[in-house]
Automatic annotation (TrEMBL):
SUPFAM superfamilies referenced in this protein's UniProt entry, alphabetically: UDP-Glycosyltransferase/glycogen phosphorylase
Keyword Transferase: yes
Species this protein is from: Desulfosarcina widdelii
Protein keywords: Transferase
Organism lineage: Bacteria, Pseudomonadati, Thermodesulfobacteriota, Desulfobacteria, Desulfobacterales
Name assigned to this protein: Glycosyl transferase
Location of the Glycosyl transferase family domain: 186-294
GO function term, MF aspect, one: glycosyltransferase activity
Gene3D superfamilies named among the record's database cross-references: Glycogen Phosphorylase B
Pfam families, sorted: Glycos_transf_1 (PF00534)
Alphabetized InterPro entries for the sequence: Glyco_trans_1
Amino acid sequence: MKKKEKKIWIAWERHRRTLELARDFDCKLYIINYSKNRLLRYVLSIKRTLIILIQNKPNILFVQNPSIILSLIAVMLKKIFKYRLVVDAHNAAIVPDDNFLKNFYQLYQFVHKKATITIVTNRYLAKIINKNGGTSFVLPDKIPEILNIEDNKKENSVYNFVFVCTYGNDEPFKAVFRAGRLISKNYNIYVTGNYKKVDYSFLENLSKNVILTGFLPEIKYWKLLLSSDCIIDLTFRKDCLVCGAYEGIACNKPLILSNSKINKETFYKGTIFTENDANSISNSIKQFISKKTLLEKEVIDLHYEMKRNWNFNFLKLKYKLDSY
């Protein structure tokens, strides 16, 4: 009988995808996250990573990228520790969106090429990995499991939309704010995330139907999603599958997403696609109202189909890892 292999997962930041995949792969997960200045944080994180590798001597090492520094270390130590290296690469690990990091793209290519397998969320990102000489495997985000949270949706004439937002540079949140003025007062848009990142003068002129929730604890966040009629999550990044879309599917809520090829391929039911400007967003909200019943039925089908496909692809990935 084949001896059970030792698998560990190291990440330098906490992310729901990492937590879920580590559990599904039955890996011991080490999250290294020091709240120090950047240089000291890197020094301490590298030291802790080395200690973990020496103590565990894994057969398979999973790392989350970002961090590119962690991924580089994992690649350089691969031959010394003789592990297979699996890099779970988020969008910023494929093509960095930070202007400073773009100067070091050759390092990203090096990681892509030297990892045993690089997991990505869609086929467009997989093409980049393969072009850089690496081996890719497409595994989208897993639809989250929601347990023991009551759906407190109330039937009334007011429609509630939740715009999942982090106020990042890739998010058209200002267009969503402007869209609030173009829709009925009976349509509320709840905007999640830490709004203190935004210039206060811009927030002063919000319409009353745009409600900023601030950063919410997990339970309150899920309750907000469950109480909504529709989830909005938008990005300027053309190859990005946003977390809010999967969270919406988990809640069986129809979606309004940015109009991109990958979104149309992935969320092919129960979804309205919009351009990232105020007029298009407001029109999509109105379109949702007219198609609400159909979209609610479609999103339940989509939930089942995506869950089935994810389980199938996960088993394929496990088999591929075992074959090395």
